[in-house]
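re: ur question from the group chat, yeah i did fold both. here u go
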Amino acid sequence: MGIVNCTPDSFYTGSGVMPCREALRMLIAQHLDEGADLLDFGGYSTRPGATDISIEEEWSRLKAGLLACEEICRERGVKPCVSVDTFRHEVAQRAIEEFGVGMINDVTGGQYDTSIYQLVAESGVQYVAMHMRGTPRTMQQLTDYDDVVAEVTAWLHERTKLMGGAGVDASQIILDPGFGFAKSLEQEYQLLAGVDRIRTLGFPILAGVSRKSMITRPLGISKEAALPATTALHWELLCRGVQILRVHDVAAARQTVDLYNYYEKIALQR
C-alpha cells in the first residue's frame, strides 16, 4: 500500500504533497511503476501533534489526489485498489460515491464516528480498523497499558463485534495494530512481537511502520535515513503474518514482499 498524503504536514516529507496536480501525478505514477497494489490517499494528517481541520478542507485535499489518480489510471488502463484514509463518514461517503474507492482506512477504528460502520456495510467496501487512543494531539500521553498486546487485541476484537452488529461482513474487515499511535517505544516492539496474537482474531492485518520513530529513535537516525531499518521490520512483519504493508517506499517494499513469497515457496518444499 503506497502512501499518498495530500497534506502540508506529513511527518515524512517524502510522502506529502499538497494538492498540486503535477506533484500528485508524479507520486502516484511512481508508486504504480514501483509495484503498488493499493494506493492510500489521506487529507487529514495524523502525525503526533497534528491540528484539526474541517471536513471541507479534508475533502478538498483528498479530491485533488483522487482526481489525479483517476487521470493516471485512465491513461494507463489500470485500476488499482484505492483507499481513503479518513475517520469521517461524510468524507468516506463522498469518496465512495464520487470516485468508487474500494477501501476506507480509519485510524480511529470507528470510535469517533460510528456511523461509518453503516456506510461500510451498505457500500460493501473494505474497512481498515486501526487501534488508537485519544487524538493525534493527545495520543502520545495515553500509553498506560498493563499488557499492550492483550489490550490492543481485546480492543480490536470488540470493534469487530460492533462492526458485525452494524451489518459489516467479516470479509470486509482488516485490522491494524496502530504502530506509532498511543504506544511508547518499548510497547511498539512488544506489539510487533505479539502480532501473532492479533492474527488469532481471524482477520487480515495491515501494518504501517515505515520510517516511524520506533525505528529512528533506537538508532538515532533521521526519517530520511530509515529505509534500510524499515525494510528489516517489514520482513519481520511478513514473517508474523501481516498481509498489507503501508509504506512510503514502494520499490523496497515490493522487493521485500516478492522475496518473502519466494522464500515461503522454497521453505514449504522442505
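okk and heres the other one u asked abt
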Amino acid sequence: MHLSAEEQRVGLFRNGRLCDFEIERTSGRSLAGNIYRGRVDRIARELDGAFIDLGLERMGLLTASDVIVPDGLQPPPPQEGPDRGAPPPQRPKRPIDALLRIGQEVLVQVVREPVARKGPRVTMHIGLAGRNILLLPTQPHIGVSKMIDDPAERQRLFDVLRRLLPPQMGAIVRTIGEAATEAELANDAGFLRAQWQDVMARHSAASAPSLLQIDLDLALRAIRDLVTPATRTIWIDQAEERSRIEHFVERAWPETRPAVRLHEGPAPLFATFGLDGAVLAALQPRVRLAGGGELVIERTEAMAVVDVNSSQQSGDGSLDDAILAVNLEAAREVAHQLRLRNLGGLCVVDFIDMKRAEDRRMLEAVLEAELEGDPARVRMSRMNRFGLVELTRKRLRESIYERLTEPCPTCEGRGFVRAAADLAIETLERIRRLCQDGSQRGAELRIEAPARVAAILNGPLQGALQDVATVHGVQIEVVAAHKEGVAAAPSLSARRR
C-alpha cells in the first residue's frame, strides 16, 4: 500500500504477479458505498427510473427495481425458498411513476461509480459490508455466497444468521465467511447494526440532499475485501499509518493477523516490487503471451474488444494443437487483464479459429474456471461460430484508464489526427475562395497553422500560395503554431496595409 496525503494505491501481489490494482485520490475519492439522503429531481419513464439529487455534480440514477415501496403498497415479504442463498423472488413490477414522485426524499446508496458521461447508479436496497457478511438492513433476505458450495455449511450459516438478525433485516454471507464461527458472525452483525443505527440517526436529523455515511477509505477496504487467510504480509510505506492499519487488521483478521510491515528501502515501495512497471504495462493495448502470441485490448464507448493473435509456432505438434495452446494461454490472460484493468460492461474476445469442437469446449471451460476467481460478477456466453466469446463484467468502479489517463490533447481521444496534407490543401482552398472576389486586394493574410501543416504550406504548396498572392495582389505569411489536434485547423486572419 502506498499511502500519502494526496492518494492511496493498493496492489494485490500474488504468485509473483500484480493481479489487482486500485487507486483513490484524496480529491476524487470513490463514491461507491456512500449513503445519501437524496431528493427525486426528475422521473425518467423511458429508463423506468428517476434521477436523484445527491448534492453531487451529477444526478444519481435510481431504477424501479431498486426502489423500496412503502409497506402499504407492496405484498408481504417473500418466504425463503429451498435454496438457501438464492435471490428473493421478484415483486410484481410497478412503473417508476407509480413508485416515486418529484420532490420525494429517499435514502439511497451508491452502487456504481460515475462513468464517462453517466452519473452514479444508486439503490434503496442498502448494504453494509463487514468482514464475513453483507448486512441488508432494509431487506428480510438471508443469503449465502454461491462460492460456498457445501450444502451443510450453507445451511449452518443460514441458520446462524436467522438467529442473529431481527425479522425485518437480512444478510448475505460473503465467500470469506465460509467456516466463520457464530461468535464471528455475531460480532460482524452487531457492528453493522450499530453502524446502521448511526446512519438512521443522521438521516432523521438531515435534509436532502445530504451525505450520511462515507465508506471506508481504499486502504481499509482492501484489507476487508482483498486480504484472505493465505495473505502473509501487508506492506505499507507510511509509518504514521501503521497503527491504524494494524488496528483494523486485528479487528478484521483476529486469527491469522497477517504481518503489517513498513517499507523503508531507498526505492519506493511499488518500484521495489516491480508494481509500477506492471501498472504502466496494464495501460498498453498489447499484452505479450509467454507462448509467443499476444492480446490486443481496445476500448470503445459500448464495449471492450480483445483480439487474440497467434505467432510463429515451433515444435512437432499439429497446427490445431498449437492454436489450442495459444487460445488456452490467452483465456487465462484475458481473465487476469479484465480484473487488473477493471474493465466493466460488455467485452468480446476474438479467439483464433479452432476446427475441433472439443477444443472449443475445453477453451470455454478454462476461461470459465479462470473467471470464477474474479470478485466482480462475470457472465460468459458460449463461443459462437465466428470464434467470439461475449462476457459481461459488473462495473463496480472506474477502470484503470479512468484513474490514470486522460484524453490525448492532440487527437482528443479519437486515436487519430487529420492528415497534414489534407489540412494544408484545405487551407489553400480557403485562401482562394477568400480572394476570388477581389475584396482582399492589398491585404496581408496571416496563416497560423500546426507545425506539420505549416511545413507543407511553406514547402510543396509554397508555389501555389505565391500564385494566389500574385494573381490577387495580397501578401501571404505562414506561421507555425504549437497547437495540435483534430480540431486544430489552421486559422486565417487578414489586415489592410
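fwiw on the second one: The chain has twelve helices and 24 strands. Residues 72-87 have pLDDT under 50 and may be disordered. idk if thats what u expected
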